[in-house]
Structure formats: structure tokens, C-alpha cells
Amino acid sequence: MKDKVINIASNNDEYTLEIKERLINLLRKNGYDYCDGFSKHGELNITIGGDGAFLRGVRESNFSTIPFVGINTGTLGFYPEITPEKLEAFIFDYISGNYNINSMNLIESEVFSSEKSKKFYAVNDIILKRKDMKTIHMDVYIASNHLEKISGDGLIISSPLGSSAYNKSAGGSLVYPSLKTLQITPLSPIISNAYRCLDCSIIVPPEFEISIYPEGREDYHVALLADGTDIEYEELEHVHFRTSKKVIKRLSTGSFNYWNVIKDKFL
Ligand code: NAP
Ligand code: MN
Fold first, then answer.
1. Active site residue: 3, 33, 36, 51, which one?
2. Is there an atom of ligand 1 within 6 Å of 153 CB?
3. Angle CA(87)–CA(249)–CA(100) in degrees, nearest 5?
4. Are 50 and 83 in contact (CB under 8 A)?
5. pLDDT tens digit string along 76-130?
6. Buried b / exposed e across 10-22, counting CB within 10 Å, b at 16+?
7. Mean per-residue pLDDT for 242-263?
8. Could you read off the pLDDT of 16-39 as tens digits, one per residue?
């Protein structure tokens, strides 16, 4: 019988590589083979690092539906649940089938040029700013209703699990992960007699699509960042954002408790 395969996506920190060695030995002892990076033949994706390693692992797998779990050797580690001390216990739980799997819906963005459109995905958030960092003006529509023209540094569209990242720093709300929402959070919105827009974030349910039309001027080069990675596109006339039907799966052993994680990581 061929060995079962587990994918490992890690960063290259010294400590991470040490943990990776330990993990590989443990997997071998238990009859598993491993793949450095992503293989569609893997039965589980393990990331080693912090949130960045987790988010990059998901992106490099092209948002695979093979479950993800993270070992936290990083600085914050909101996504990776396993601490290096619990590595042996985790492998034991995994082999015993003592875990559960939770799906999370991705953020879907569709970038439209005058002729075509292309879809991009994100786990945490998509940030929209001007490349030259000057004031950006953009019209915001929700389900084809014009809501406002936002003027400022840009905006964040975040998922519930992404709400504790950039969204939180920009004054947005924390959203419980079982809700399927998108949050629009403006970055330094201008509120004056010249420009008027909402200076709070808006939480949108999944049945509504959000459309953003940046002001159509020649000097406007809009940067889109999905989970901290530049989205490359040819031309942007407008962008749609929606809660995707596409999901990724997170494997969790024991008792993941959102409120404890928030208290643990931030307070
Ligand atoms: P990074 O610059 O290392 O990320 C900034 C911090 O956000 C890190 O401490 C990271 O944790 C943490 N983080 C990531 N996702 C989180 C989540 N869902 N909840 C709570 N904290 C989270 O870059 P990165 O590690 O590649 O992460 C990309 C994310 O950085 C983006 O999606 C964006 O949300 C965030 N970001 C935040 C700001 C800001 O707060 N001003 C600015 C730009 C980007 P680790 O230390 O474990 O990696
Ligand atoms: Mn990071």
C-alpha cells in the first residue's frame, strides 16, 4: 500500500524548520509520507509559521478544499491552533480521528475591465488603495443601490475571520465566524463640507453584492491586496465583492473557542 501523504507549507525561520523536522519524523513514525508544499494527493495541509504562513499555504494550494491546520511558530498566530509543545498530541488526535472540520466561505472579488472580468479570492480581506497613495474617490453600491462616494485612503473588505486583522486596526468590528458577512471598512474617510461619507464600517449579509467604482481618471492606478498579496490585473473599471460559495476547511482538535482566542491574542 502506498503511504498516505500530508502536505507541509512552512516559512524558513530557523525555529520553524526545527519544528518541521520534528513533524516529518513524527509523520514517518506513523506511516505517513509528506510533500513539501502542496500536492492534490495530500489528505491534510499543515502550515508551520504564523498567520502569514497559513494564508500563503492556502493561496499556494489555490484554495484547495483539503483541510488546513497550522502549527504556530509565528508572532501572533490567530489561525494556527497547534502549539509546538502539542505536536505529538495533535498527531495522536489526528490519527484517532479526534477532530472536527469547519468550513469558511472565502471572499470573492470579480475585477471588471470594459471587456472581461476575472475572479480572485481571499481568506481575510481585500484592500483597495491607490498605488500612488493619494486620496482615492470611489462610488460604493450595495445590491446595485448607490450608497455613497467614499473619499480617503481606501477601504477594506473583510470576512468574519479576517475581521480581527487589518479591519480591527482600522476601527471595524469583530464578527463571529459562523456569520457569513462581508464588512466594508473605510480607511481614513474624509468627512468635510467638501467630501461626505460614512465614517463607520458596514456589515453586509451574503445575499448582497458590493460594487466599487473608483473614479475613472487616467492617473488612477488601483492596488488590490488579497490577504497581503498583490492581485495582478490588466485593467480595472469596477470590482464586485461577494461572499463566495467556495470554502476552505479548517481542521480543529479539541475546543476552538473564538472568545478565548480573542482574549488570548489581543487582551
Ligand atoms: P503581517 O504584516 O505579518 O500581518 C500583520 C499582523 O496581522 C500579523 O501579526 C498577523 O499574524 C496578523 N493577522 C493576520 N491575519 C489575522 C487574523 N485573521 N486575525 C488577527 N490577526 C491576524 O502579514 P501576513 O502575516 O501576511 O498577514 C496578512 C494580513 O495582514 C492581511 O490580511 C491584513 O489583514 C493584515 N494587515 C494588517 C495591517 C494593520 O493592522 N494595520 C496592515 C496591513 C495588513 P502573524 O504575526 O501570526 O503573521
Ligand atoms: Mn505575518
1. 51
2. no
3. 60
4. no
5. 999 999 999 999 999 999 999 999 999 999 999 999 998 999 999 999 999 999 9
6. bbebeebeebbee
7. 94
8. 999 999 999 999 999 999 999 999
pTM for the full predicted model: 0.96
Q: Is 51 a catalytic residue?
A: yes
Amino acid at 178: S
d(CA 61, CA 202) in angstroms, rounded, equals 31
Cell triple for 213: 467604482
Q: Which of 65, 49, 38 lies closest to 10 in space, CA to CA?
A: 49
169 C-beta closer than 6 A to ligand 1: yes
Which residue in 105, 101, 104 sits closest to 256, CA to CA? 101
CA 259 remoteness from chain centre:
19
- Domains in the chain: ranges and CATH: 4-98 (3.40.50.10330), 106-245 (2.60.200.30)
